[in-house]
User: What shape does this take?
Amino acid sequence: MGTKFTKTICPYCGTGCGLIIKVEDGVAVATYPDSEHPVSRGSLCIKGWSAHEFIHHPDRLTSPLLRKGDAFQEIPWDEAIPMAAGKLRETAAKYGGDAVCGLSSAKCTNEENYLFQKLMRMAFKTNNVDHCARLCHAPTTVAMAQTLGSGAMTNSISDLAGADCILVIGSNTAESHPVIMGEIYKAIDGGATLIVVDPRKTAVVQNAKIHLPINPGTDIPLLCGMMKHIIDEGLYDKDFVKARMEGFEELNEFISAWTVEKASGECGINPELIKLVAETYAKAKESAIVYCMGITQHACGTANVLAICDLAMLCGHVGKEYSGIYPLRGQNNVQGACDMGALPNVYPGYQSVSDPAIRDKFQKAWGVELSDKPGLTVTEIIGSAGKDTRTVYIMAENPALSDPDVNHVLESLKALDFLIVHDIFLTETAKFAHLVFPGTCFAEKSGTFTNTERRFQLLRKAVDPPGNAKEDFTILCLLGSALGLDFSYNHPGEVMEEIASLTPAYGGIRFDRLERGGLQWPCPDSDHPGTQYLHKDRFTRGRGLFVIPEHTPPKELPDDDYPYYLSTGRMFAHYHTGTMTRRSPFLNREAEKAYAEINPEDAIHLDVKDGEKIKITTRRGSIITTARITKRVSKGCIFAPFHFTEARANMLTNPVLDPLSKIPEFKVCAANVKKESQDD
Amino acid sequence: MLEKTKDIAKQILEEKKAGGIFGLMRNRWNVVQPHMFEDPAELDALVLEPKWLLAKLAMSILRSSPENYKLAVVCRGCDERALIELIKRNQIEKERILTIGIACSQEQAAICLCDRPYPAKLDAGKKVSGVDPFQDERVREFLIGNDKKRMEKWATVLKRCIKCYGCRNSCPICVCEPCKLEDDIWVQRGAVPAEMITFHLIRAFHLSDTCVACGACQEACPVNIPLLYLQLSMRETLKEKYGYEAGLNPEVKSPILSVVFEEPDTDREYPAWINSLREKDGY
Assistant: This one.
């Protein structure tokens, strides 16, 4: 009998649920929930239950591929690795190390991300390494580092169940982080008030006590109006502000202009309702703020997060159990990819590349000279392709679907001298590669993922990689060695020991300590039990800092030519660019084709019936998709999930960036909609 | 209880009465998970806690193993009853399954609201008395009293459904192929929450005479819908009106099935497992 069960971690969102994969004769045949898992406790969402479905898909890449004209040819590893190393070296020699860029991956393990950034930094003396956190929580990292000193979720997922008031802003938790939504319901059953700020009437809204359907991109007016009322009524935590904060005078002066009436005028919410919400949040014993892409994916994303931090700190709802700030991370290991320094300005543990003492530490440990110049971000790498950027190595990212203004992305990918893509399927991005490495999925390797509550968790290998595909860890070691680096690691656990030695906050993380339930960082030494919530008694930066959140409206608002607001996001059965979920039969049957949500009144006006084709056009391009008529979106708003390659919502999105975090404004742009002739 | 279970398991393997023992294993890091014990030397790692329902997994192991492979399952009362229901419905062959019955603790019975926290074939442990679920305050709020209030309560919790299908996937007795929830009549694709009436009540009614009240559906629900309560009234009615309880006696058929089979043939389509009974039992 060849039946075995392997405990591991879900490859989808940042909740980090526990899975048990059933393996029969080397084939993953089913997924079950892990009854002992500290976060998911025996439950899973639809994606978790289906996590085995794409593993053995016939589309999996099984050999390195080399481009020959318009086609790919299979080549052996002993040709592929030297070729990649040669091309990367050639570019560095000809144009300098900064002409080489790497996109690391929030889908890969901590150890792989660590090796990836180490490889880029050591081999090419460049800091040009980034990943898709740029497109999701870059504003969180920037703003929370500034205000609190640490860019991570302050509390644990289970803390939500003990909150008295939960303010959800721009998060469709019920569809995107379903298992976390369960904790919110526990809080409601215990008497907590759920308040949801979202232009759409999402599944979360349907279960909320109060819904604030603000105008898209007016989070700051709402939050400032709330703060003004809280200060005016003396409801803020004066002791907390006095004992633990700085910058209150400046904030107060700024906020004084944001009367509730002015805020109401901007965000479209009744002033009395703003006051009620402000009072509810401030007066509750334990208040939590949960937010996601609805906050960050704006040209004022960083300021949005600042406003959230200011509100929480003003009311003293940070630094204790059951309250806090909960940025929900989207990818299984986006927290980890950031933690491991797959970012252009920091080494692992958010240690700045510009700080001479820190750089010196890494130079000594790695035995090479390192660059002090912060590198390029995802959006800047794409923007400079074919100019300053000549050769790019992309590990398990799919910018051809995930980045804004996809038409421009495709042009950029074509303009590169050499593109190496390392993935499990021939993605839309890999199709543009010169060289493709077949990598491994979550079930085929060991290592660690870090979930949204800073929990390092052990990933356990259940099945072998397909064909000649290699573990990503092995590929990175081979490539590093071919580039002349000492990458002679035998096991990911050795990499974790190196990470721990260089990063105080992860100093106590070792594989054997993660076996049961994982560990939440900071975990500085081998006896430390991990940290359930941050900023107790003292903020990571010392005193908390109020930072002024300047409001800037969305860069592109509806006008006569483009009269609709367009917003993009996820739906419950699919995940990001659909590479895995659209190849999972049970998930794909929920939504087999692209669609966009449109309000019934608009549908009447456009003479469109449910299921008919519509054409959505913006200043960047247009897509033809299927209308789904629903009151979930309000009149004048369109919502398009971005999972579908045949109608890429990111053909439409605006690539304008938040100046501080460089996140694009995915959540708002102006669009036009027309009924598409049904003949074709 | 644990030592006795290990002894029985060891004997089964040594005497080759079954090819494997299916139970829970605890490794040196104190991590517990379901495991197939095929080597007696491994049995040191066998544990009985926490409550982890194994009947559905056991069925899937039997289905993918050779026809002459026999499996012994370490099971609590609910798991035993689920296995009996699966045998009754021709999902597993009686000859291929052995049980090592263990008793639940009083605490576990209280958590599960279990009225029979022990298997009929008890091999290890001591019986504790069952709990009457209808004395539980929360159950009463959902099942007894003012209709309008109860309806509101149900609407509140069912509206939370995130359509993970975990209730169906985890249920040991949910075996229909194709599943009614996937036939595009009752449940709309691509939408959450799942329809309150069609999704949840179809699922509940499909199990009305076969639910063993193991609570797997409720334990798997990420949003804590008290799905077990949906079954309690139906179980109670069958007990009261027909003296019938699912999973107790392999020889006694469900009163609903006898009604279906005694009706004149109406060209209706039945799930494959019902048709398999027609063939086997000559209905």
